């Protein structure tokens, strides 16, 4: 954790698998470092539950050197694997490599449709500037930064961070208006619904 903070990563640290799953429901993270040997849930079980709602990248930490465990971790949706004992510098390097590999490229067809200008609080789709409210901008920005990741209504409500948005159903209203604004540009279907969970941007 200290090695990551020294490299200017913002870090949240929990000791139990269930605590991690709870955090991932209410907060948005760019990457998860997951220890296989947790006191409550097995790290593989944590990842299995996590993958039901999120495609956030995961780096495993483990003392096991069995190749079966390594394959299992990656087949469940892990992005990389570090065996203990390890150098903190190696963990930092692997995290940077994962984030670089998964960051949107300018020539990706799924991302070239969009232009996000956070400094100007502006989003363009197919070259056309969208007229967005503050909450709509925040929701769409979050979806753009994490294409394919499912956001619950509670997460999007926190992202709005507005006194006017005090009920989770207000998120549905924002999604509806965002789709309406994208409809003339043939982008309505890109904001998809995961029934019973929340919303995500088609990647």
Structure description:
Residues 103-203 bind DNA. The modification 4-aspartylphosphate is found at residue 35. InterPro entries: CheY-like_superfamily, OmpR/PhoB-type_DNA-bd, Sig_transdc_resp-reg_C-effctor, Sig_transdc_resp-reg_receiver, WalR-like, WH-like_DNA-bd_sf. Residues 1-99 form the Response regulatory domain. The protein folds into 2 domains: 2-102, Response regulator (Rossmann fold), CATH 3.40.50.2300; 109-201, Arc Repressor Mutant, subunit A (Orthogonal Bundle). The chain is 42% helix and 16% strand. The protein is built from 9 helices and 9 strands. The protein has helices spanning 2-6, 17-26, 43-50, 67-75, 88-102, 109-112, 134-145, 153-160, 169-182, and strands at 32-35, 58-62, 80-83, 114-117, 122-125, 128-129, 151-152, 191-194, 198-201. A 3-stranded parallel sheet has the order 1-2-3, with helices on both faces. It is elongated, with a radius of gyration of 18 Å. The two termini are 31 Å apart.
TL;DR of this structure?
The chain has helices at residues 2-6, 17-26, 43-50, 67-75, 88-102, 109-112, 134-145, 153-160, 169-182, and strands spanning 32-35, 58-62, 80-83, 114-117, 122-125, 128-129, 151-152, 191-194, 198-201. With 203 residues, it is α/β, with parallel strands linked by helices. Helix 2 packs parallel to helix 3 (43-50) and helix 7 crosses helix 9.
């Amino acid at each position: 954790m200290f090695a990551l903070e020294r490299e200017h990563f913002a870090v949240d640290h929990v000791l139990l698998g269930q605590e991690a799953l709870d955090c991932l429901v209410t907060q948005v993270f760019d990457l998860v470092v997951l220890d296989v040997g947790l006191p409550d849930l097995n790290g593989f079980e944590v990842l299995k539950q996590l993958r039901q709602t999120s495609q956030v990248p995961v780096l495993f930490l483990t003392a096991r050197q069995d190749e079966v465990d390594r394959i299992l971790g990656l087949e469940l949706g892990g992005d990389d694997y570090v065996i203990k004992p390890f150098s903190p510098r190696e963990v930092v390097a692997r995290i940077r490599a994962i984030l670089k590999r998964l960051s949107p490229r300018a020539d990706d067809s799924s991302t070239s449709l969009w232009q996000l200008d956070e400094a100007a609080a502006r989003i363009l789709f197919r070259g056309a500037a969208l007229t967005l409210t503050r909450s709509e901008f925040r929701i769409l920005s979050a979806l753009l930064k994490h294409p394919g990741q499912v956001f619950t209504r509670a997460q999007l409500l926190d992202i709005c961070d507005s006194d006017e948005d005090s009920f989770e159903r207000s998120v549905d209203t924002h999604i509806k208006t965002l789709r309406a604004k994208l409809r003339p540009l043939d982008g309505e279907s890109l904001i998809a619904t995961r029934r019973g969970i929340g919303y995500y941007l088609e990647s």
